[in-house]
Amino acid sequence: MSLTLISLSGFYPAARHAAHYADMLAQALDARLVLLHVNRVSVFDPYELVGEVYRQEELDRQTDTAAALYRQAETLRTPAAIEITTDLLPTVAQDLAARYGSVLFVLGHPEPGHPTATTLVADCAELLRAGQYPLLLVPATTFPAGLPHHFLVAADQEPFQLTPAARPLRRLLTTLGTTVVVAHVSGIEDDAGCGAALRAVQASGLTEGLPVPELRGYEQTDYATGLLEAIRDTQADMVVLLARQRSYFSELFHQSVTAHLLERSPVPLLLLPTQPDKAA
């Protein structure tokens, strides 16, 4: 089944930039493209108690929005479907995945300090946690000259498997990747840990069909700082982050590596949900 990129769309710079980036990827991957417009992102349905009539009233007020989205879609190279809903809920994501098959949600992340940045990313993180969907975060300050070809995979020593939803995203690396580097960040020099990280990536099948990735270690007590150093060192134009099931994604975005990377990363971040390797 072909891949579908679902870009959370709007008319401000971050959303428009993400839509054009998704369009570029869809062209290269022969993927489908959907422009999805929502007013809110939530794990709870605000209309559950008050009734569907109010949801429909809100949708009826968005005819101008729909018309503008169709005009925006006409500027893209990939024929794009338009989806408009009031709230991006786990059930909405499930419905989209059921109708479109393998999906990748694409989100434009506003510049640091933008008033909606933290809220929007945290809400999408909750959606991802609930549904285990891959997510591509495109910084508003990222203006790539072309398609990503240099991939940096941030890995630790822990074996993992890609979830069924994440496995189709291997196409990004196998189709576009000219170089793939596995980066292991640790507080001390740890060659054994580097080797284990590379073995975990290879065993997951993420780089199957590609040459053995180059392995580089970075000694840094702050993990996000170490990854930013790796991005500069390898000249990567996309970073692959492995999202562990044991982590709450709201905490991940607010408090840990991904939050810091979103604020400072010059390149898009691809979050792939994983599950423990049962064979390990």
| Secondary-structure content class | alpha/beta
Distance between the termini: 30 Å
Q: Indicate the overall shape.
A: globular
CATH class of the largest domain: Alpha Beta
Number of E strands: 11
According to CATH, the homologous superfamily of the largest domain is: HUPs
Per DSSP, the total helix count is 10
Number of domains: 2
CATH architecture of the largest domain: 3-Layer(aba) Sandwich
Taking pLDDT < 50 over at least 5 consecutive residues as the criterion, the unreliable ranges are 247-255
As a percent range, the share of helical residues equals 40-55%
Strand content: 25-35%
Query: Within the CATH hierarchy, at the fold level, what is the topology of the largest domain?
Result: Rossmann fold
- Rounded to the nearest angstrom, the radius of gyration is 19 Å
Report the sheet with the most strands, covering strand number, pairing sense and barrel closure: 11 strands, mixed
Q: What sequence of helices (H) and strands (E) makes up the elements?
A: EHEHHEHEHEEEHEHEHEHHE
Mean pLDDT over the full residue set? 86
Pfam family, one: Usp
InterPro entries: UspA (IPR006016)
Protein name: Universal stress protein
